[in-house]
């Protein structure tokens, strides 16, 4: 059986019966066909053997014969959205939208490199521009794709092949516009790489100052706070602009949720110990069992989850279908589910 040797470049605490902490610089071995995460040449943080329901089953904590385990870096549980939500570096595409993202990262004080990609420009926003994904110094943790929908498919494929951590697909015009085959081609291009969208504004991490967001927002850096998750970018932007004293840790949009769904994204945010609660604007629930597990896990963690569910009227259900291609089921079936899991529902944003 194949064995791969590598060296940790960050300190990890592993949760398994052996327990303990593995320091940066520790040589490790993984047996079998692992999936590399955060890879730079032969310098690899960890190998993932299996990803299921957004959680990574890891191996190699203290040697090839170690039992499967989960790992935590800086107190954060590893999952496949970790690089996208908490990136070390960011790539941006689409000249105008890329410039907006660059400006927002500067305002937020993001301390990692930002790499614009453009086939003909040598610089964007005062930063060196790279001609293609292949020309980047390394596979980016997170990428904002602000090009047209057809180019988005090809860029997504290139990022996945390069080993990127994930991407925001900004362009509209997919299933919500009567083009389901195009959206399916995007999903195929992404492969195992997580994407938010398409038809998605992006994500803002106010805890670490990392954002893939092409517009103004009302938040500031915080040490802890609530995560706001929405299938409507416009709704979550307006909430983020609120003037109350509510500290916001994350703002995240799903758009059409072609690859990453509601429960997976909410679960990844829930895993961050700095997140105290989650607020959600829901147009449609794509995976009811996964959503039930999410609610149960939130209750076990003592973190509140509050949801606003659209689709109370036929007109609003039609609007959801044309907005993010969501099948916005009626609100009434959600009521007993909400009560059984102690999930508060709000009927209006001000509440």
Concise description?
The protein is α/β, with parallel strands linked by helices and 351 residues long. The protein contains nine helices and 22 strands. The protein has helices at 82-85, 95-108, 149-162, 180-190, 233-240, 262-270, 288-301, 314-324, 334-340, and strands at 3-7, 12-15, 21-22, 27-31, 35-40, 43-52, 55-58, 70-73, 76-77, 90-93, 114-117, 123-124, 127-128, 142-145, 167-169, 195-196, 203-205, 210-212, 225-230, 248-253, 275-282, 304-309.
Question: Explain this structure to me?
Answer:
The chain has 351 residues and is of the alpha/beta class. 26% of the residues lie in helices and 27% in strands. Strands 18-17-20-19-21-22 form a six-stranded mixed beta sheet, with helices on both faces. Helix 6 runs parallel beside helix 7. The N terminus is likely disordered.
């Amino acid at each position: 059986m194949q064995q791969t040797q590598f060296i940790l470049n960050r300190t990890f605490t592993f949760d398994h019966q052996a327990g303990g902490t593995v320091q940066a610089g520790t040589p490790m071995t993984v047996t079998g066909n692992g999936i590399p995460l955060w890879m730079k040449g032969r310098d690899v943080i960890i190998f993932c053997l299996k990803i299921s329901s957004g959680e990574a089953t890891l191996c190699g904590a203290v040697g090839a014969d170690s039992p499967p385990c989960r790992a935590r870096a800086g107190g954060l549980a590893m999952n496949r959205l970790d690089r996208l939500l908490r990136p070390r570096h960011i790539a941006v595409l689409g000249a105008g939208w890329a410039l907006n993202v660059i400006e927002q990262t500067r305002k937020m004080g993001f301390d990692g490199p930002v790499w614009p990609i453009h086939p003909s420009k040598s610089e964007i926003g005062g930063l060196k521009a790279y001609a293609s994904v292949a020309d980047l110094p390394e596979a980016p943790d997170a990428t904002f794709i602000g090009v047209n929908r057809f180019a988005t498919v090809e860029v997504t494929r290139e990022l996945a092949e390069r080993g990127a951590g994930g991407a925001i697909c900004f362009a509209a015009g997919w299933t919500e516009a009567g083009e389901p085959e195009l959206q399916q081609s995007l999903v195929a291009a992404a492969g195992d790489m997580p994407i938010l969208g398409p038809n998605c504004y992006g994500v803002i991490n106010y805890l670490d100052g990392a954002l893939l967001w092409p517009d103004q927002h009302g938040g500031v850096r915080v040490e802890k706070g609530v995560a706001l998750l929405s299938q409507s970018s416009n709704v979550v932007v307006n909430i983020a602009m609120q003037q109350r004293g509510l500290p916001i840790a994350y703002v995240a949009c799903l758009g059409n949720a072609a690859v990453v769904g509601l429960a997976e994204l909410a679960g990844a945010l829930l895993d961050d110990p700095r997140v105290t609660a989650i607020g959600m604007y829901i147009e449609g629930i794509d995976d009811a069992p996964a959503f039930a597990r999410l609610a149960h896990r939130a209750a076990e963690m003592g973190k509140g989850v509050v949801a606003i569910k659209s689709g109370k009227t036929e007109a609003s259900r039609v609007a959801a279908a044309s907005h993010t291609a969501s099948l916005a089921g009626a609100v009434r079936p959600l009521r007993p589910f909400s009560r059984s899991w102690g999930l508060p529902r709000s009927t209006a944003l001000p509440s």
